[in-house]
Amino acid sequence: MEKAEKLCQDEHTLDGTVDRHGRPAIRASSGSWFAGILLLVNQGLCTLAFYGVGVNLVLFLTRVIGQDNSSAANDVSKWTGTVYLFSLFGAFLSDSYWGRYKTCAIFQAIFIVGLVSLSLSSYFFLVKPDGCGDGSAPCGPHSTVETILFYLSIYLVALGNGGYQPNVATFGADQFDEEHPVESHSKVAFFSYFYLALNLGMLGSNTILGYLENEGMWALGFWASAGSAIAALVLFLVGRPRYRHFVPKGNPWKMFCQVIIAALRKWRVEVPLGGGGLYEEEECGSEYDNGARKILHSDGFKFLDKAAIETSTDYAAGIGRDPWRLCTVTQVEEVKTIGRLIPIWLCTIIFSLVYTQMTSIFIEQGAAMDNRLAGFRVPPASMSAFEIVSAAAFILIHRRAVDPAMASLRKSGGGLTEIERMGVGLAVAVMSMVAAGVVEHFRMMDAVPQYVFIGVSEIYMLVGQLEFFNGQVPDGLRSFGSALSMTSISLGNYASSLILTIVTQISTSGGDPGWIPRNLNRGHLDNFFYLLAILTAADLMVYIVCAKAYKYTRFEERSNHFFTTPTGDELTQEMAARRRAVAALPTIVRALKKEVPPRHHTALPSLRRAFSLYDQINLIDKVPDDQLRFQEFDDTGFKVNGVKYEGSLLCVGNLITSWAPKKFADITAESFLVVRYDQKRSYERVFNYCINQRTLRKIVHGNFLLAVSILSSSSKCSFIMPPDVALLSLSIFKTLHPVPEILILGCGRYTQPVKPELRDFVRSTGMKLEAVDSRNAASTYNILNEEGRIVAAALIPYGDY
């Protein structure tokens, strides 16, 4: 049966993905890099098409439509904001009803319609007379119908790109099974390549298409964008037979409303201490049976916990649970998750306000400068290539130099987290605005520094923002997580439009030309940049406060019911083994109390005595009786409650013990066995040391007769038993009652994929498994233990991997 199960696991994906027919996805014939590469090329071509319109839109409005600089920048901010606002709409349809494939296909088609319409209108009546729009010859006036058609076209482009963009990155990540050791690493690599594809598309549009449009060849540039978008859609559709899909979860806003209403209906009900007794559905048959992970209970927003308290009015006759009266813990935690993200999300809007200046004010500033280089006229829009190159270069600098340097300087041994990187991005954005102001003030005719700073800040803020929101939202709302970062850009553009309007009205009062007049040489654009620098610095202060108060979302292990549910004899043997192990504990404890002389009488928890029976565990002295706390860690061990311990540790509740594995590769199912049987019918100890006691005990319980030889320095512990009775290889966790709800596995310096055999073993004990790096494992254990949860943690030192 084990062989058959392994074959099934090799054949199908383990993360709950399905093929286009709704069947479990077959690993060999779906997803992976074939689908991933198609989506990477698709993203590069779509980015080229979109920025072929967006990068020079402000110049099109001033040179072709005839707007002034302030109005053009204002309109571009509104348009860009609408693009990203539509991302919420696309994410909603994707997560709730259509799925990511259908959503991407439909919105790409809308995107193409908008580009073709813009190309036709530009060719036939917008760029008239011929040769206008290059900055030297103005275009003629346009009728109301022509202007309406222009705005309809660019807002169709906004709708198409906005609805597509938040889904394609998530859809690409769906093609890699995060439960598979090889594909999980490929999934991490995909995000890096995705950002590279996006930057290559931007580089092509900002240089080649930007040059064509700056020279007045607007229709040709727009037709090139339309052709790129058509090619992208064709490639996307080619991969249809190979794509993997997640089944849409349903309308999340309905679920959010259910939690709020259920909590309001129970506003008088007291919440149990520590969140105990709150309602949660079993995985099998629940709404989370499609591969989504449940979320562990958290302390914040305690009022919402009332929605998960069971009362007599929560069940309707013949219907079962009323979802508007009783919600699951995971539903409640999903609402809490969004609530915790809002302060962080709001703080990113000011950065987006700064970032959008690159596509509006920066271009107008560049157009007013001497942009000739070696006899070649550099288009103002092409100057953003400095930002793209800076961003691409700093990706390597950050990974190879900055992150390792931070890891060596910090006591925790880790690099910058997503929240910290976003804070650095805000700080560098302040520098960008100061640099832009200095360039404008001294007329140095060199805007490179501000683009470089924007590129560096983009690496920290935008990439960190995408990873942070995708990692913190529930599994069923991944597209919504991507849309959150895009909506931040949307609101930043609207904020830019508002500030431009206010600044223009105030600075032009009394007949002055204002800070941003049509002729920038007569204005004070530097004052506008300094104002943005001050706003961003203030936002950074608020962000630091919010980041320190933020608590990360804690997920349970992903559920998977295709291969791991025990049935028949397996289930019977499992339950019988657990009953025998638990039933033996009282007799074991009583025997130990009678036979061990109390030289130094100290009350010990029963768990410690149960462990000492098997003589496999070295219980570390001076462990506090209240709670354990990991305080520090380094490459060789951990500091717990003021004591430094070398090597690996195993913690269960508030008990601590040394642990045999020295590196991640040593961790197997046998690492958690009290005894194990080999072919010589001897039972070797698994852990490092035997306890310091020399005695022979006989304990009789049922059909078991164990003669336990406890030796202080022996490498083996012998067990004598009747030949017709098979000794149960007891897991440490099967001797506990109740069994810990989760095992937190600290993998060392990096999170590593867990072998399927080890996952199956942990699941067989009734626990969930969460594998993270040892730094986060220690932190998570501290949090859960402080909440009074029964948890276990097995950690290897941070320097071992």
TrEMBL record:
Protein's UniProt keywords contain Membrane: yes
InterPro entries linked to this entry: MFS_trans_sf (IPR036259), MTH938-like_sf (IPR036748), NDUFAF3/AAMDC (IPR007523), POT_fam (IPR000109)
Gene Ontology MF terms in the entry: transmembrane transporter activity
Any one Gene Ontology cellular component term annotated for this protein: membrane
Gene3D superfamilies on file: MFS general substrate transporter like domains (1.20.1250.20), MTH938-like (3.40.1230.10)
Location in the cell: Membrane
SUPFAM superfamilies per UniProt: MFS general substrate transporter, MTH938-like
Keywords: Membrane, Transmembrane, Transmembrane helix
Main localization, broad class: membrane
Family classification: Belongs to the major facilitator superfamily. Proton-dependent oligopeptide transporter (POT/PTR) (TC 2.A.17) family.
UniProt name for this protein: Major facilitator superfamily protein
Organism (species): Striga asiatica (Asiatic witchweed)
